[in-house]
Amino acid sequence: MSPRDAVGEISPELGLARPVRRRPKLSWSMRIGAGVLIFYVAVALISVVWTPYDPLTPGIGDGYDAPSWAFPLGTDRLGADMLSRLMAGARYNLGITLTAVAIAFCVGTTIGVIAGYYGGAIDTVALRAVEIFQAFPGLLFAMLVVQAVGAGIVNVILVMSFVGIPDYLRLARGEIHSRRSWQYAEAARMVGNPPWRVAFRHLLPNSIGPLLAFTSINAAFVALITASLGFLGLGLGPNTPEWGNMIARGQDGVMTGQWWVSFFPGLAILGLTGAFYLLGDAISDLTDPRRRR
């Protein structure tokens, strides 16, 4: 190792050594997770303009046609093309997941920052409300609310975002509460910054790492709950090419040998949730210095 490699680059103006800032290496979790997620997004976008057959039209083939050149993933019991329905389902499942997570992240983080920074009655009320909502399991709460308000894409998105808000609130509140008395926050207040600017301009950016890592985990959870609601018949319409609905539609054929009707939608859900979990683990490694190698 040369002296230059040991101490960093030499400044030609001052003749002093300065450390070399190296970019963190992307882990295999990040590469695989991002690659799989990009593939899902590409399929969802392509399905808007093209699918091999109309995903909503039954009778394109015979019922329960096995995978073949004409139908690479086979057909379901009504003769609809499984590949076309699987592609169309990507935009439903992925769209609901990303939209619900974005709403939950924005609303929950905003309320959490306010509660964590100001404390007092706002903090107490927010935490008590979170404890009440989290007393119900996520799937059970989503089932009850969807059953009450009715099925549909908008209702499912609102319910899933509402389920995720308490987790973001608690996490953001804890991060802000632990940092509001740190030196950089005190310095920001001393120079005359208003409280909202200290909270959202100085504290939140330094607390965003755990929130981003949790976002991927929450996205995997939302994708699973959305598919579960579709499987139970509480999500979208019965003919909508949503993956959970497709699994339920093909469960009768599993015992009689038509495995492909439920297998491929289940594999799609597994790949999507696995990609989100890999991204969450990689983001935790990037944002937490204690986990960096």
Poorly predicted tracts of residues: 1-17
Shape: elongated
**Total DSSP helices:** 11
- CATH hierarchy, class: Mainly Alpha
Helical residues, percent: 55-70%
Termini separation (Å)?
21 Å
CATH topology: MetI-like fold
Strand order of the largest sheet: 1-2
The oligomerization state is single chain
What string, H for helix and E for strand, traces the elements in order? HEEHHHHHHHHHH
Largest sheet at a glance? Answer: 2 strands, antiparallel
Beta-strand residue percentage: under 5%
CATH superfamily: MetI-like
What structural category characterises the helix and strand content? mainly alpha
Report mean pLDDT, rounded to a whole number.
86
Give me the count of strands: 2
CATH architecture term: Orthogonal Bundle
Overall radius of gyration: 24 Å
Count of the domains: 1
Can you give a write-up of this model?
- 68% of the residues lie in helices and 1% in strands.
- By secondary structure, it is mostly helical.
- It has one domain: MetI-like (MetI-like fold), CATH 1.10.3720.10.
- Strands 1-2 form a two-stranded antiparallel ribbon.
- Helix 3 packs parallel to helix 6 (153-179), helix 3 packs parallel to helix 11 and helix 9 (208-231) packs across helix 10.
- The radius of gyration is 24 Å and the shape is elongated.
